[in-house]
Every structure is written in structure tokens, then in C-alpha cells.
Design goal:
This protein is mainly alpha-helical. The chain is built from six helices and four strands; from the N terminus they run αααβαβββαα. It has helices spanning 10-17, 32-40, 53-64, 96-100, 157-178, 187-211; strands spanning 82-86, 106-107, 115-116, 136-140.
């Protein structure tokens, strides 16, 4: 796992408070709090969070007594909240999406079907690329209740705080695992099994096309 900065000051925590906690890395940093730390250290600008968009930029500008600037196009466009969906009939159980999810929103075991916990998914898209069979798609996230206050359009405060907590819990778990000598596995064997599963899925799709 990339090095992750932990909150070290009230100043960083205040900046992190305005970030939507999607942990999507579109800002160029490995986590929301790493981006917050970089802002606090004056190493980057406040306009690099597409999920937060203008709302986050304005909030940070007010907090830091800066002038708001348009979202940096280098980071991609702002868009409505999304969430991931697994086409379960095509899932080969490779666990790569589980390893990629920054908030533990995907559950499943090796060689078994995986599924996304929709209420926990931040829509970061980090699970899409690693999937070797392309069985993960993105769709609109369920909108929060209209009476629930929030700093971010389309995201409830509860969901954002939940994502922050799940990110830190995952980080602590992986840190503990990396410090343990008792946990090991054969990466080469796992890679070979994934390739074999991918080939079976491709063959199945090819057979379906021929049958139709």
C-alpha cells in the first residue's frame, strides 16, 4: 500500500474535513488526508478535488483565506457521485478489486463471487482498472435524503464520515499485516490462477457470441 499520511495537526484535520473522502487519488495524492497535508504544507493548490468540485474549493478558500479558483482540469471533471457494481455472473473471484478498494466496500473470497456494499462505496473507480475481466461498472450513487445536511451535493455527511473511518481502519489493518511475518502467500501461483480464470471467462463469452 502506498505510504499514507495520518492526520498530525488540527490544521490538517480542518482541511481534511472539507474533502469528500472518496479516496479516489484524482488529486494526485494517495488519499484525502495526504492531499490535506500537502495543502497545509503549501505544496499544492486547493482546486484539485473533482468529487468535491466548487463546493470543496469554496470551503477550503474560506478556511484558508484564499481566493477560490476553478477546478484544475488536470484532475478531471467534477461529476455526480457514483458507485461501483459487480456483474456477479462474470466475476472470477480474483480479489484484485478487494485489494484496490480504499474503504473495504467490496466483499468476497478467492475464487468466489464478489459484491459491492453499495452504502459503503465512494465511487472512487480504483477497482475498475485492476479487474481482469471487466466485470465492474460505475453507475449513479443513491442520493442522500433531502433533509440530511451536507457540505457536498449528492453526498451525505454520514457517508463521508463513514468513508473516512473505513479508510483509516483499512490502513491500520494493512499496516498490522505488513508487520506480521506469519502472513504470506504465493503471488506467482495467484497470478497463474487469475490468468486461467480470465481465459475461461473469455472462452465462455466467445461461445455465447457463436451461439447467438
Amino acid at each position: 500500500m502506498p505510504e499514507t499520511h495520518l492526520i498530525t495537526s488540527a490544521h490538517v484535520a480542518a482541511i481534511d474535513h472539507y474533502l469528500p473522502q472518496t479516496q479516489c487519488t484524482q488529486c494526485g495524492y494517495p488519499s484525502c488526508v495526504a492531499y490535506a497535508q500537502a495543502i497545509a504544507d503549501s505544496k499544492t493548490s486547493i482546486n484539485r478535488c473533482p468529487p468535491g468540485g466548487d463546493v470543496t474549493i469554496q470551503g477550503l478558500a474560506t478556511l484558508l483565506d484564499q481566493s477560490p479558483t476553478p477546478l484544475d482540469p488536470e484532475c478531471g471533471p467534477s461529476h455526480a457521485p457514483q458507485q461501483a457494481f459487480v456483474v456477479e455472473t462474470e466475476c472470477i473471484g480474483c480479489t484484485l478489486c478487494i485489494q484496490a478498494c480504499p474503504v473495504d466496500a467490496i466483499i468476497g473470497t478467492a475464487k468466489k463471487m464478489h459484491t459491492v456494499i453499495e452504502d459503503e462505496c465512494t465511487g472512487c473507480r480504483l477497482c475498475v482498472g485492476p479487474c481482469p475481466v471487466g466485470c465492474i461498472s460505475m453507475g449513479p450513487a443513491e442520493m442522500p435524503p433531502s433533509n440530511e445536511p451536507s457540505l457536498w451535493p449528492g453526498l451525505s455527511s454520514r457517508r463521508v464520515m463513514q468513508a473516512r473511518e473505513r479508510f483509516y481502519n483499512r490502513h491500520r489493518r494493512l499496516q498490522q499485516r505488513s508487520n506480521s511475518d506469519s502472513i504470506s502467500y504465493d503471488r506467482r501461483k495467484m497470478h497463474e490462477e487469475i490468468l486461467a480464470s480470465v481465459e475461461r471467462v473469455r472462452q465462455r463469452r466467445s461461445n455465447k457470441r457463436l451461439a447467438s
